[in-house]
Records
---
Amino acid sequence: MDDEEGIRSMLTMALEFLGHQVTAAATGRQALQAVTRYDPDLILLDVNLPDLNGFEVCRTLRDRGNAVPVLFLTGLGGVDDRVRGLDMGGDDFVTKPFELKEVAARVRALLRRAGGGHPDRNRLRAGAVQLDADAHQVWADGRPVDLTTTEFALLRYLMENPGRVLSRRQIQERVWNHRDEGSGVVDTYIYYLRRKLGEPGQSLIRTVRGVGYQLCAN
């Protein structure tokens, strides 16, 4: 979460390209609402947010018992500021201006650390389909499948919720990050996904008429 739209958009695109699902927020209160709604694996948090600053957002999360890893983005390079952030419950810092590859590396490190008890959290399997979020690769019946960023995010969301019926609105909000892409975009991308996955995709992704879609793990 960052208050500068340019930085927010750049980070969102870069992290989505690497296979992460991203929800962006422009203010501290929006960030807290997004955490409640989406239960993220990690928060990238600008210190200088309007209304509540990043330190206050982190402290609020910790007071609520939320232990999600927090990576601060800050233009404040002093030791005292870093100590304050860590004391508030932060896990790591990146100082502006930053290199995207450094941010990506720190995100990977924090996710690995947070997933210590779940080493395969980013490797998903459903039937004959496998997804590796770290490598941004998908296989169907053992053959590699070339997916676009959006197709990959859609498949990952379905595979993270096996057996659950997901409405078109839920899918659009998660995969398209609240952007209104029109009522038929989800159906279109499900079609693309099934076609690329081949036979496994036809049996794996079930249409629930009038509601949405369900991933059938068995």
---
Amino acid sequence: MPHLPDHLLAGYRNFMSGRYLTESGRYRELAREGQAPETMIVACCDSRAAPEAIFDAGPGELFVLRNVGNLVPPYAPDGEFHSTSAALEFAVQSLKVKNIVVMGHGRCGGIRAALDTTSAPLSPGDFIGKWMSLIAPAAETVSSSTFMTASERQTALERISIRYSIANLRTFPCVSILEGKGRLSLHGAWFDISTGELWVMNKETGDFERPEMA
């Protein structure tokens, strides 16, 4: 019995004979000199919304953090385990990224779970429920709107959660200080899986707009 699923081994063979072959010099450079990406992406775990594929990024270009619902918790130096905060700290303080992009997406299961308060937890630990409670106030407000359809409520909360995460980013001193000095920029984006459309958050209004494509 193979130690990895067959489709992963087949994919690796294609990688070695394809992308790695054409970019082997770049990989050797990264191994020798280390990574120095200018952009961090906070994205969802969803297998349909991979940032490297969406932005056609090469090796070493993006520092990607993925979690359920692409959420950033508020700054909480309480001695507990904080994987998202740890990745953020490393990206900002060590890698010195210049941009942080919070990218949500359509049909997000985590957002759906935040809106559906009737479903039973997937496990006794209810880790997803606890995690998505970060946006509970917004979820309650959106859920109470009877003028929107279920899909409209879903899209609304997907985009609101991006603004929530950006607000939480600013609770981290390392982020707020560098942003104030103009050395770090925060961005929001939303990807529509079904159409491939990318919507970018207007920093002044908070609205999501389609960027002009040449």
---
Amino acid sequence: MRFRLTPRETSFYDMFAASADNIVTGSKLLMELLGADSAARAEISERMRAAEHAGDDATHAIFHQLNSSFITPFDREDIYRLASSLDDIMDFMEEAVDLVVLYQVEELPKGVEQQIEVLARAAELTAEAMPNLRTMTNLTEYWIEVNRLENQADQIHRKLLAHLFNGKYDAIEVLKLKQIVDVLEEAADAFEHVANTVETIAVKES
């Protein structure tokens, strides 16, 4: 850790932790979606939308703090990138739930539950990691594991695409389901972006 003579604004750490905790809430709502009927899915969608709005508020709070702080705990560009990537995760999760409801999908294809399980695990790891930004400790295993999970998500996504194009579904259903599994894949990518940004910050601060 580099020695600094100037004080630093430390509220960023709490705000990043709050943003990550909100993502855990979103991942749990995704898990609920799997076994829910159409009526329950609509209610889950409303809760997910509220969680996404809370995520937006957390992101805006970070940006406001960034713009009003003279001294920041690490590079401004990295703070912006980290906050934006966390916000992207919530956006993608909310979009996936919204699409399931809007498209009135009766049954999600086998393999989507694996996608969501990967996202839930990545959410837990991210929430555990954010408080460690304060000390820059115990972070290496976090970004290694999230990168491994993203590779796993890629494999699941490819298998899902192969399943969707095997002739079982009609063309319109394929389009609907493909958009949903693609958005879930984007959420996995966003988790990796967060992990890569944390790694960049840790390297700079070491």
